[in-house]
Amino acid sequence: CPLIAQGKPVGLLFFLSREKNTYQDAHQDIFLKIAGQISLLVEKSRLYQQMHELNQELILAQRELRHQATHDALTGIYNRRAITELLEAQLARAKRHNQPLGVVLLDVDFFKQFNDIYGHQAGDSCLRAVASSLNESLFRVEDMVARYGGEEFAAILPGTDASGALSVA
């Protein structure tokens, strides 16, 4: 009995008996119905697997889009949009728990001159190095670093008072 799903063969159901003339026309009708049911199960299983794979692809694509929306493409650290949202959340948390919140803003001095003299590729390398240095300088998991603008960076330091933020800066 052929297993057919969506008009395409997907397998074969084979019945065998050691006895001659075991199967009659009534058996064949039952076998064909069984084959039809198995075909449906095979097709449903294939569709379920396909849906599962597509769902996994969508989850990965969503993660990638979320990352692209919140991280700077050049440096890999948070972007201005993300750090602004994080700052709002951290400010609310600091107020709610009556805790300090340190924020450090920095600007790379003479960056335009550096870019003009050495070129944009060197400028990009400089910005990546600054971002990497900032990330390495912050030892706590809860600290956040972002590229705030062209050559401007920001760090959010939860639970850090003014003297602590000055020390980090």
Would you write up a description of this structure?
With 169 residues, the chain is α+β, with helices and mostly antiparallel strands. The protein is 57% helix and 16% strand. It contains five helices and five strands. The strands form two sheets. A three-stranded antiparallel beta sheet has the order 3-5-4, with helices on both faces. A two-stranded antiparallel ribbon has the order 1-2. The longest helix has 46 residues. The N and C termini lie far apart (77 Å).
Notable characteristics:
169 residues, single chain, 57% helix
Please give a quick description of this structure.
With 169 residues, this protein is an alpha+beta fold. It has helices spanning 25-70, 80-97, 111-118, 120-137, 162-168, and strands at 2-5, 8-12, 101-107, 144-147, 152-158.
- SSE order: EEHHEHHEEH
Number of helices: 5
Structural class: alpha+beta
Helix content: 55-70%
Number of strands: 5
Taking the sheet with the most strands, its summary is: 3 strands, antiparallel
Rounded to an integer in angstroms, the radius of gyration calculated over CA atoms is 32 Å
Backbone shape: elongated
Beta fraction:
15-25%
Neighbour order of strands in the largest sheet: 3-5-4
Give the low-confidence spans: none
> Roughly how many Å apart are the termini?
77 Å
Overall mean pLDDT stands at 93
